[in-house]
């Protein structure tokens, strides 16, 4: 009898699995047709479907290290691509609106005579090409980045966003004071007469549109048309104020623009091909401007959209900082170096001294400008200590380093015992492992959304310090918890296929940053480290699944958190 019942329930389970898979495929087809670009031809669509089917295949194991095996997974008719561009599909054309009309001639190069001329594109021309769909690849075809972003996995239908799922609400017309920051208010300030909100008004400056687009689930939407104007604002708009940002340990500035937008500036501290000194502990490492920029791109490529847009800019330290700053403490730290470069060091608890000054060449300084989040008076944030925080000590080990069953405790502890918090943390772990960031001591969330929201991945300046080694301890949460979102796993598998290879997509994405005209944001060695680390992540997940199978048989999957099937998780 018991045997019969078990057999019956197994049959029911199997039918449910088959039904759910068919539903997913149906959804995929639907989403494809919803988001279909008119330029698309049928063959890539089939390719997408085949790829998706292969990715969903639970027997998938990473074969990235073996290209031939990976190609074997690709369906017939898929073009074998070796360059970073695909030519099978018409690109989504850069709209006229995206094209930048104003030109700002940027003095590229570092003022060093021995550095020859660099890419002739001006910074604004680069910016015009920024943003997921404002990209026109060199050749005639679709870039790998475009191909990736048009894949069904990135275009799954999402549930409608309710009014409560937006971070900010716009004051009704008539009450707002033009161009004032009073135009937008926190949720609690809004009255009953909120019928005329205008979230996507073209008249709003890009930074405001960015703020108004922040939801419970992400900082900005996939294929956000505001991304190009936002990047343009960050990299070209006049800077009217530059003051030091308090808090944190290293020098950073708050820059303000004429339209009231603000950004956080982190200066260049390390050459691209330089590796962090191996004798330095992670907590003594510098922050790198290119790490902030590359982290934003990687986060977007992974489909997370949890890092505020960060863009590179050549800043004139004299006219754009020294001459306009009202921060006397900052102004006092400017000096001219022995080779006539203008330098400053500001005031902070680390590296703010003459020895660690940041210098222009002679006035041009490479920097990252990250879009400022809404002020905390409008949208308070909560800072959470990471359960896998390092000890920040040369001699002490953290608890998680000593206890292999540490995750069992975390899994029982709120907020990790409910909803998506644990898998969100694992998402962050994966991002950090890929970019070698050991400095994730805290993360933040928007208070308004309680525990049911995404995690902000702020402060990525210590990523991309080393390319020749990987830091396995960063992956500990994944190793110990053996849990991952299905959507994340599918994205990672997609990025391990040759036609969407992570390094190629990242090279492509980063080439649209304005500073690419000075030098690529990540060296080739850092790009290939991404591919190598991706293999490690996929292998870790496979190991988890094997371990689970050997313990519990083929039954239900405890490793995969099926976020593509929300009704599967009622808690
Ligand atoms: N884009 C942003 N918008 C608004 N606030 C931000 C943004 N990025 C960072 N912050 C805030 O500024 C604080 C300091 O920034 P950040 O962590 O990058 O500096 P830091 O010097 O590296 O700090 P720490 O030494 O604590 O790691 C963050 O904790 C965060 O609350
Ligand atoms: Mn930091």
Automatic annotation (TrEMBL):
Listed under GO cellular component are: Golgi apparatus
FAM20 C-terminal domain: residues covered: 334-551
Q: Which cofactor does it need?
A: Mn(2+)
Which region ranges are annotated with the description Disordered?
66-98
Q: Which InterPro entries match?
A: FAM20, FAM20_C
Active site: residue positions: 439
- Quick one: which residues bind Mn(2+)? 287, 459
* Main location per the UniProt record: Golgi
Keywords attached to this Swiss-Prot or TrEMBL record, sorted alphabetically, are: ATP-binding, Disulfide bond, Glycoprotein, Golgi apparatus, Manganese, Metal-binding, Nucleotide-binding
Q: Which Pfam families match?
A: Fam20C
Q: Which domain of life is it from?
A: Eukaryota
| GO MF, one example | phosphotransferase activity, alcohol group as acceptor
For bias type Polar residues, the affected ranges are 80-92
Any one GO BP annotation for this protein: enamel mineralization
| Residues the record lists as binding ATP | 250, 266, 287, 370-373, 444, 459
Subcellular localization, as worded in the UniProt entry: Golgi apparatus
Name the UniProt record assigns to this protein: Family with sequence similarity 20 member C, like
